[in-house]
Design brief:
alpha/beta; OB fold (Dihydrolipoamide Acetyltransferase, E2P); Rossmann fold; Ribonucleotide Reductase Protein R1, domain 1; 3 domains; six-stranded mixed sheet; 7 helices; 15 strands; 26% helix; 25% strand; binds guanosine-5'-diphosphate; binds magnesium ion; binds zinc ion
Length: 279
């Protein structure tokens, strides 16, 4: 029978078939074939011998957090502790777009801002809304989960588990105090697990302290700054990297304030970052 892996703890994979859960071990052949079963995978199982037999083809996969076949990713960005970071936001948007997953932005801890800080934040967020992203700062985000597989991403301590607990009062995910010295939450969510809630499947994840453009070229980065695509036809060179080239429409739009300068600066930083090492 075929089911979905909803949880993994070392070599124990919990597979959901309709509403029944089976805890299966992975066959040795996976290791041999270089296949790592992931949460989110659709798998053929042998329910009698409690074995994973085969992993069905994936529509996508993320490395960090490691999960497969997700429709959308909620990026949870904290305002304070950890500090709001456009660098991290732009990086995550780019990586998630590259993996063919729809990003949704949630900004947490807005209760810690004064009205001036809130106004400043709203101005920035309105840019991300204008280029096509859904952006939330409150529980109205609950409208996005129905019939979708969603992964929560964001730094440890950003408020991912807290948001999920607020959205579904039946959940009691452990949340962490942010340690003052590190400014980071403890890694309270230790494994990736798909939870049946809000009409869909949602994975809370442990979060990370560092993230990088694994496997991405500078062209991949360029192509996943989505608002650039609107203008790139008008660049003089077809393969314009919007960097040192003249007659670059992207640079013109940055000067005209139609592209957020921090987005463009982060873009330049990222293409340098990936050019340094191997492609
Ligand atoms: N003031 C405030 N604190 C929050 C909010 N969301 C989360 N926190 C706190 O931030 C800390 C880390 O939250 P947690 O949900 O564990 O973060 P996670 O690591 O992303 O799951 C906890 O102490 C929460 O109480 C919020 O909206 N406002
Ligand atoms: Mg958590
Ligand atoms: Zn250009």
């Amino acid at each position: 029978m075929i089911g979905k892996i909803v949880k993994q703890i070392s070599n124990d994979y919990t597979v959901k078939v309709d509403n029944t859960l089976y805890t299966c071990k992975a066959r040795g052949k996976f290791k041999h074939d270089g296949i790592t079963p992931l949460v989110g995978d659709n798998a053929l199982i042998d329910p009698d011998n409690k074995l994973l037999l085969e992993i069905l083809p994936r529509i996508n996969e993320l490395i960090r957090p490691s999960i497969a076949n997700v429709d959308q990713a909620v990026i949870v960005m904290s305002n304070k502790i950890p500090e709001f970071s456009l660098d991290l936001l732009d990086k995550l948007l780019c990586i998630i777009e590259y993996n063919n997953i729809k990003p949704i932005i949630y900004v947490s801890k807005t209760d810690l801002l004064n009205s001036e800080e809130l106004a400043k934040l709203e101005l920035i967020l309105s840019y991300y809304r204008d280029i096509g992203y859904k952006v939330y700062t409150d529980l109205s985000i609950k409208e996005v989960f129905k019939d979708k597989v969603t992964v929560f991403v964001g730094q440890s301590g950003a408020g991912k588990s807290t948001l999920l607990n607020k959205l579904d009062s039946n959940l009691s995910l452990i949340t962490g105090e942010v340690s003052a010295s590190l400014g980071r939450g403890k890694h309270t969510t230790r494994h990736v697990e798909l939870i049946n809630t809000l009409g869909g499947l949602i994975a809370d994840t442990p979060g990370f302290s560092k993230i990088s453009f694994i496997g991405m070229s500078k062209e991949d980065i360029r192509d996943n700054f989505i608002e650039f695509n609107k203008y790139r036809e008008e660049c003089r060179y077809k393969d314009c990297m919007h960097d040192a080239e003249d007659e670059c429409e992207i640079k013109k739009e940055v000067n005209n304030s139609n592209i957020l300068i921090s987005r463009y600066q982060n873009y330049l930083k990222y293409i340098k970052e990936v050019s340094g090492g191997s492609k």
